[in-house]
Design a protein that fits this description.
With 264 residues, the protein is of the alpha/beta class. The chain has one domain: 3-Layer(aba) Sandwich (Rossmann fold), CATH 3.40.50.620. Helices cover 53% and strands 7% of the residues. It contains twelve helices and four strands. Strand 2 (60-64), helix 3 and strand 3 form a beta-alpha-beta unit. The longest helix is centred in the middle third of the chain and has 23 residues, at 113-135. It is globular and about 50 Å long.
């Protein structure tokens, strides 16, 4: 059990604010609705549910984009189940052939699982925007505040979206909201993962639980406490706090638009 700060939220108030935000953002852009990449995980399931509540099922389109032999069958079933439960029109495409074509044409480039995983995220982004553009819709992103702050997303991949309904909530808070929205318990509690390679989990790659990450982020950026104070409050070492702060610092380029050279 992680000790530290109280990150509980007024789920009803948060839900109302997000629903209003979705409605207003879609209205002012003149869009017909939104496209959501639905993976079967807690973040995308929460975003799909919120968008459906805000706009109605006819203005939300879900894209399910698994990779055969990498995406667990449970995730595919959960995504299809939720699309049906919400009454959403949806598209289904396995990205294996698209990914394979890229790799075959770039077989002279040295890569690793992270480089390959980033490519998969960008392929999915291209599909989402192709569908969204054809339907005069926006792409609703599913990144949460934890992922955004530590840079745990692919630049121009899952980070390539039009707006972020749950971008103001830490991962643990998204789970609170998901439970409030009535999502199945196994989705609410499912380990977070981009599923970019076999056995891939977020916490496995990060080396820390989101319970700890969220506590440290809250102490550093919401309460503005020192490393030592946060470490003491959360019950971790100063080195852990520094490692999380370093992730935020190093990923700053992901949260900014590209710099422009001054010419005047």
């Amino acid at each position: 059990m992680v000790v530290g700060y109280d990150l509980s939220i007024d789920v009803e108030k948060v839900e109302r604010k997000i629903l209003d935000f979705i409605v207003e953002y879609v209205r002012k852009t003149g869009s017909s609705g939104v496209v959501v990449g639905l993976s079967g995980g807690v973040d995308s399931s929460t975003v799909a549910t919120l968008c459906t509540k805000a706009l109605g099922k006819d203005r939300v389109f879900a894209m399910i984009m698994p990779e055969e032999d990498v995406t667990p069958e449970e995730d595919v079933k959960d995504a299809l189940m939720l699309a049906e439960r919400l009454g959403l029109k949806h598209g289904f495409i396995k990205i294996n052939d698209l990914y394979g074509n890229f790799v075959n044409h770039l077989n002279w480039v040295r890569s690793n699982v992270v480089v390959q995983g980033n490519l998969k995220a960008r392929i999915r982004m291209c599909i989402l925007y192709y569908v969204a553009n054809s339907l005069n819709m926006l792409v609703a992103g599913a990144s949460d505040r934890s992922e955004i702050l530590i840079g745990y997303f692919t630049k121009y991949g899952d980070g390539g979206v039009d707006f972020l309904p749950i971008g103001g909530l830490y991962k643990t808070q998204v789970r609170m909201l998901a439970a409030h929205l009535g999502l199945p318990k196994h989705i609410v509690e499912k380990p977070s993962s981009p599923r970019l390679w076999a056995g891939h989990t977020a916490e496995g790659e990060l080396g820390l639980s989101y319970e700890i990450i969220d506590q440290v982020l809250h102490g550093l950026f919401d309460r503005k406490f020192s490393y030592a104070k946060v470490a003491e409050d959360v019950g971790v070492s100063v080195e852990v706090v520094k490692s999380i702060a370093n992730r935020v610092r190093k990923s700053g380029h992901k949260r900014r638009t590209p710099p422009i050279a001054p010419v005047k």
